[in-house]
Amino acid sequence: MSSYHVNEKGFYGDFGGAYIPEMLYPNVEELRQNYLEITAQDDFKKEFDQLLKDYVGRPTPLYFASRLSEKYNTKIYLKREDLCHTGAHKINNTIGQILLAKRLGKNRIIAETGAGQHGVATATVCALMGIQCVVYMGELDIKRQSPNVARMKMLGAEVRSALSGSKTLKDATNEAIRDWINNPVDTHYIIGSVVGPHPYPDMVARFQAVISEECKVQLMETEGRDYPDHVIACVGGGSNAAGIYYHYLDDPRVNIIAVEAAGKGIDSGESAATSALGKEGIIHGSKTLLMQTPDGQITEPYSISAGLDYPGVGPMHAHLYRSQRAEFVSVPDQEAMDWGLMLSQMEGIIPAIETSHAFAVLDARKFEPNDVLLFNCSGRGDKDLQTYIDYFKL
Amino acid sequence: MNRIQSVLEQDRKLLSVYFTAGFPNLNDTVSILTQLQDAGVDMIELGLPFSDPLADGPTIQESSTKALKNGMSTDKLFEQLKDVRKNIHIPLIVMGYFNPMMQYGVERFCQKCQEVGIDGLIIPDLPVDEYHNNYQELFKKYGLLNMFLITPQTSDERIRFIDSVSEGFIYMVSSAATTGAQSSFGEKQTAYFKRIGAMNLNAKLLVGFGISNAETYHAATKYSKGAIIGSAFIKHLEKTGADNASAFVTQIR
Prior knowledge:
The structure holds 2 protein chains of 2 kinds. Chain A is α/β, with parallel strands linked by helices. Chain A contains 17 helices and 14 strands. Chain A folds into 2 domains: 20-51 and 90-203, Rossmann fold (3-Layer(aba) Sandwich); 52-88 and 209-392, Rossmann fold, CATH 3.40.50.1100. Chain B is 46% helix and 15% strand. Chain B is built from 12 helices and 8 strands. In chain B, helix 8 (156-165) links the parallel strand 5 and strand 6 (169-173).
């Protein structure tokens, strides 16, 4: 049977690998050689599980959204990652990576962040462990996401402004990689999504896999079977999606739906729908689908949600797309914003704008009354309040 | 024999200079090549600009951004180099990231390189294993040598492997850094240069990253075949414009 998980060479089908400068090779190789062994150790698993339970607040609830289910005449479940400490699923990964970094003897952490959620989750675990933390953030994003910048500073992290290129997430990632090149021995780089050179996409997916692991148990309790008919998540780089798909990747009974940000529309020139607009290429050390000029220069994506405007997509998702294992849908800003309001007023949950995108699939596509739909409610909307206020003139 | 191999055979220390094609102005490329050759430079690395140059520091990154803004592209570069071999006789290496080459088509890219008279490539984000498994034959077919980087963190075993697939020189990165980050060499670097020198590799070594003046050039070439200057030359071009390239070379040696 073919598998949608990573192979031993670090590839998902045609995608993945480690296209990195030699200066990064020792760091990435050290990780590759150790991540499976360390994360399989009993003391690692014990500490990871304990922190997820006592510190993050896991397991997160699986919530049956009854009003929404009634309106759409189908069965809708929300995996409440928005209830995690720091407000999104991002912390599952940062907890895992900080424990790994400690075991690799690292005493300095670097990270990139776009909207600031991963930056906050990284600053949080560094404070928890008493480890020095530097977060790279595009100069433009620092201006757009000031509450998260303040959070990181309050948590003791240093926020460095990425001034190069387009001054957003991709440039913050470039700067973090350069920092790692300059500090190869004492520093661990906590990447926030299922992107970057192997083993990052697989490692981050494994740390996020706790999401679908819990869903299996929770669905068994409520539905008497441990799988949904459809599993649905938004995809920027794709970490929340990787986490909720993980244990269903090779289960043909489960239809996988990935929702990308269409921004102002696929053909508007201001979009982040990588599957529709991207071509195979290399970004941040990974062969994947990415948005670029015909000449191979990486372009700047657009979405109203800062967490979805990454010009690439994780190699796992590129493979799910090309192999047609997953259905890819793209949702424009306006529909996502409307769903932010809809979820707030029908279920009393104010979602992150990233998360809102996923729900728009309910309008885009028909589901059967007996279908079990599993949505990743990946983050809460507090960080987006200003955008919601401006948009709806609240 | 490839021009790179011929110059590596010569009994003297080599100076190789890097600059970004299309910088400071779009059409400066051939003029800068000519000036560098006239000033006695042994080899030139021509940077194909990329939007996201991971291995480069701010100086080269900014020059790349500027060059792209000026309108530099893969096609444009080949067009500028169409007649370059009428006047330029020293080895020419294209240094660029892999994505633009992939989009151009790797074989088509190699073919074009051969057509205009490029002797070799440096592609920082094409790993040696990937090259060895998928591209070595192709590069050979078009007479292109591929140069690899090593750093102070590269293991001896890996250096031996890189040496075994290298037909040109090995690019010895002076320290754990992006380009343009260092200003002088300390004992650490010297020890590293000596260690690699003592490995008696088949390929000749050229030191790069952190060479900015006569002092660092001489320190680097004491233990190697030559040295590569990039960021310092870009800074010079930025300050004095595209017509004073030779002044930079004469202050180095």
